[in-house]
Amino acid sequence: MEKILEVKNISKKYQNKEGEVIALKDVNFRVNQGEFVSIIGPSGCGKSTLLSIIAGLEEKSTGEIYIEGEKVEEISPKIGYMLQKDCLLEWKNILSNTMFGLEVKGKKNQETEAYVESLLRKYNLFDFKDKYPSELSGGMRQRVALIRTLAIKPKILLLDEAFSALDYQTRIMVTHDIYSILRKEKVTAIIVTHDISEAISMSDRVLVLSKRPGTIKDIHKIEFNMENRTPINCRENPKFSQYFNTLWKELGVDE
């Protein structure tokens, strides 16, 4: 598989009232085209900070980020970012919300509008294009937020606890929907999550960060060897509990 992202020797230091804090130290990993990678670790280990550095939203102290072999020093147009909240604009209808990123980047035109409308049709949201966010369920709102992000055609999608605000049942269904959409659209994805089950069910690999200062403690390849893999049927596979127990124990080790 072709490498699309390389994170090299990333460290992050910052100052607080107690002095210097090392949040991340010498983080190294690669992500291949089309992969779905999860990042897990104990609270405060720098998971979200790492994602923000990759996105170009936060400065690193040392190290380099490469996307498709090119060194990145600022926000890259090749990256899309989804947060815990869907951040839909309540005064805009669904069609306008999905076009908003294109408007901000000055890329809204007949061709890009047609692409967004095709995504809305493809993922069963076109009939709701004239509705407003308050009229949609939490799961539908997240799908709208995803289509808004996909409208700019990112090569890599970063998801920071993107499903944690949803109730358990909705969360499982949304992970199924988002996973399916990203696979069909062939978008590389990196998700930060505290949910081990979510990480296993969606990922090709799971990166485990150590406690602060966060560094790569281990990388687990997730293989279920099944046809038509989905997050839901992964949870029913006998190997799921094996992966869960391994990651649970690893996160529980106090080094």
Walk me through this protein's architecture.
The chain has helices at residues 47-55, 94-104, 110-122, 138-150, 168-185, 196-202, 231-235, 238-252; strands at 3-16, 19-32, 36-40, 62-67, 70-72, 79-82, 156-160, 188-192, 205-209, 216-221. Helix 6 (196-202) packs across helix 8 (238-252). By secondary structure, the chain is of the alpha/beta class. Helix content is 36%, strand content 26%. The longest helix is centred in the last third of the chain and has 18 residues, at 168-185. It has a six-stranded mixed beta sheet, with helices on both faces.
List the helices and strands and how they pair.
Blueprint: E1 3-16, E2 19-32, E3 36-40, H1 47-55, E4 62-67, E5 70-72, E6 79-82, H2 94-104, H3 110-122, H4 138-150, E7 156-160, H5 168-185, E8 188-192, H6 196-202, E9 205-209, E10 216-221, H7 231-235, H8 238-252
Parallel strand pairs: 3-8, 3-9, 6-7, 7-8
Antiparallel strand pairs: 1-2, 1-4, 4-5, 9-10
Helix pairs in contact: 2-3, 2-4, 4-5, 6-8
